[in-house]
Every structure is written in C-alpha cells, then in structure tokens.
Write a structure and sequence with these properties.
Blueprint lengths: L14 E14 L3 E3 L4 E4 L6 E3 L14 E3 L3 E3 L3 E14 L16 H9 L2 E4 L11
Parallel strand pairs: 7-8
Antiparallel strand pairs: 1-7, 2-6, 3-4, 3-5, 5-7
Length: 133
C-alpha cells in the first residue's frame, strides 16, 4: 500500500489583531511579486513603500515601517497601489524579508525595529496546520 499523501492547507493570516492599515504605493524595480508578510520600508526621497533591506542604509530602506498583508504583483517597473499594515499585532511566523524570501533573518533587532513603529510581532501556534509531515 502506498504512503498517503498529506496536504496542508494554510489558513492563517499575517494580521493577528488590532491592525491599522494605510493606503500607499509600493515601488517595483521590475516585474515581480512581493509576498504577503513582507516587511516594507518607506523611501525617504519618494515617500513610497519599498521592500525592507536588513542592514540597509539607502534612503531609509533599512527601517521597517509596514507589512503587506497579501501578495502584490507587478507586470513591470513602477508603482502599485497597496494597503499596508502600519500598526497592530502581526504573526511573527508570517513575516518575510524580501531579499531572503522567508523569515530566516528576522531576529530580535528586526522585531525591535518593527515595535518602534507600533507593529508588534507575536509568535502564534497555528492549530489549523497538520504537523505530521
């Protein structure tokens, strides 16, 4: 008898509770997708959202100020209208640094920087995901 196929359906959201969102523009350098949970910075010259860069120092790209709560796709370079989380509690396990594509480099420093801007990451155990992989 073959092994059963296990399919995990992820139902969790980035928002944990009491999130405030703000409309803005996310600047893309070319075609691509910014996945949900990606931490964003605000470019100091254009005042538009850009992906956060850990340790970045160009136009304040190293200062996390928002989190996107859904996938955002652009067909090419330019700006895309978004609604970003700018305050509230978010799920730590859902946060993403764009350059990494995951949460592998989210450490205490990044969490503290988010807290400086009233975004509070919380570790949450998902009960809707099977853990028997």
């Amino acid at each position: 008898m073959p092994d059963p196929v296990i399919t995990n359906i992820e139902l969790g959201n980035v928002i944990y509770k009491d999130a405030c969102q703000e409309d803005g523009l996310l600047t893309f350098g070319g075609a691509g997708t910014v996945v949900r949970g990606t931490i964003l910075a605000v470019d100091s010259s254009s005042l538009k959202y850009i992906p956060y860069v850990k340790g970045g120092s160009t136009n304040e790209n190293g200062i996390p100020k928002a989190v996107v709560s859904y996938d955002v796709t652009a067909a090419g370079a330019g700006d895309v209208a978004i609604r970003a989380i700018v305050k509230g509690e978010v799920r730590l396990e859902r946060l993403v640094i764009d350059a990494d594509g995951d949460d592998s480099n989210i450490d205490k420093d990044v969490i503290d920087e988010l807290r400086d801007y009233s975004i509070i990451p919380r570790s949450v155990k998902e009960l809707n995901i099977l853990d028997n992989q």
